[in-house]
User: Fold this.
Amino acid sequence: MKADRTFWIVPLLVLLTVVAAAVGLRTGAYPLTLDGAINALGQLWSGGVAQTAEERVLLDIRGPRVLAGLLVGAALAGAGVVYQGLFRNPLVSPDVLGVSAGAGLGAVIGIFLSLPALMIQVLAFTIGLATVALVYLIAVAVRGRDPTLVLVLGGVVVGALAGAAISLLKILADPYDQLPAITFWLLGSLASIRGTELWNVLPAVLLGLLPMVLLRWQVNVLSLGDEEAKALGVEAGRLRAIIIAAATLMTASVVAIAGVIGWVGLVIPHIARMLVGPNFERLLPAAMLIGASYLVLVDTLARSMARIEVPLGILTAVVGAPFFLWLLWRGRHGWS
Amino acid sequence: MRIDRRQVMFGAGAAALLFPQSALGSQAFTDSGGRKVMLPDRVEKIFASGGPAAVVVYVMRPDAMIGWPRAIRAEEASYLLPEVRDLPKLGMLSGRGDTANVEVVLRTRPDLIVDFGSVRPTYISLADAVQNRTGIPYVLIDGRFEATADSLRTLGKILGVPERGEMLARYTEDLFDRLDRALSAIPENERPRVYLARGPNGLETGLRGSINTEILERAGGRNVADAGGQRRGIVQISPEQILVWNPDIIVTWDRNFHARIQARADPVWASVKAVQEGRVYLAPTAPFGWIDRPPSVNRLIGLAWLASLFHGDRFPFDFRQETRKFYKLFYHVDLVEAELDTLLTWADGRPPGAPNPR
Assistant:
């Protein structure tokens, strides 16, 4: 019976995601008519360029933004599932190894040097990856201890250093010009997403997803613990490196375009685990679908609450934190 | 600023009792925050608490400057007097991005700390706190645009250059008068709708009523980012909202953003009325920003420039002559032709360091 129940959940979540995307496409500051929307889709189908304002809103602004919401939410939730399984710890989120702190530092450097928007994203992506690589090297260098513990501690230390560097740059930044930009970036937003940015990061996200899908069985085994994995013929060390690299690639690429968005990678995996149980094969798609719908809906709220944008990081925390407390209170994490 | 004689006497007596050897002098002064401050007899060294204060102190008494909130950049240096270009970076005091070390401030032995900006209870209490801790008189001067003339006069008096304060206040009043006369003929609904683009992608702006955008309304524009006066400050905007507002004019000082939308590379911005009609303006930022950054008296030249951009012939503005006059009056520099050319092409959309358009 249980197998049947979870079997239907993933298709239902696909439906939820489609509905969330439709709500996102329908909502916004610029009023859209049904005719205009159909024309815009026709334009898209025939490969034309947006002509009217309505087409532009749908194809150049809102469409990419909804797609970005789906991608960012799915990537963060997916990475969260992997990390929580890998570290066998329910309090772990994708930024535990310092990827967000590193990406934040990269973006802040870019804003501090007044670089163009694309260069800011490139810096965020590269320094995000480099930070995790550094943490991993530290963990490799410190042998003879629990490898996951060293990784987490290394992440905390390097993340704190990156945080200190960010604070330093905030102090040095021009308070009338650069400081607001830094603050907004660190709170996360999809406001400036364009189609081109989406195409830039999509390959990286897919590339990160690939090993997770291919190695899903081994990831399951790894979440039992290193000893058990060894007994079942899985080499924990190398697998861990591959999975960390993959999850980091996914996180760094979406953080580069969306800024630091907390809570999604922490809370969504728990919801998914409640629904489908701990089997990674079901857990990964379920978490990615819930993450995608969640972020699209939150982003829709962020851009329609007022005429101005409410930073995503604020909303995800306001929604996510009470929910997490509720989870704690219920005491059912699906870990046993 | 009228000073009550009894206050002076009481103040002097109190100061003599409380601070027999200190720098606190014998002249009582009530600052814009309603704080009573005993001014020193002679002001030789002034610590500016932040960006806006540094601009007014430089304008008033460049000889008394002891540092800048941030180091002067190469492209800004030639528009400042040689003796202040290399002054050290001392950071900021009192809540406006508190980066100055109070001990460093003390070691520079300023006679007076000047703060120029909004006069809110927070800043009043911080001013008191710094003054109590350092024993250096701290004056808080109203930095709002409308208060500029009065503030310049006040500063002239307390910094020992009343004639200079009076002259600059007259310049300001004359500019505001000319503006008011030109604008009185233009009803609200005929004024251009303006968007002030900030940040690397142009999606940050200041809401109507914030200190960062008050120059738009003063120059006779209507800020499209109007939240009904409920909120102020710098906010983020979605590109969709830009299309809804469809501003007649876009003003920015961010060169990257300006170059990007001038190239019409971005279809969203390219469809905005201001871009299609070629009314996207880049404000120079040397030695200080023309429209903001920091929000201080440096905005006066930008005010006249913007008014002429918004209203054309109704507010005549001879770029070379007005710029030369303003830089001479306020910044103590005689611009050479090459420097004027740099500013002119900058305001024309080609900042220094940018490649020439093909």
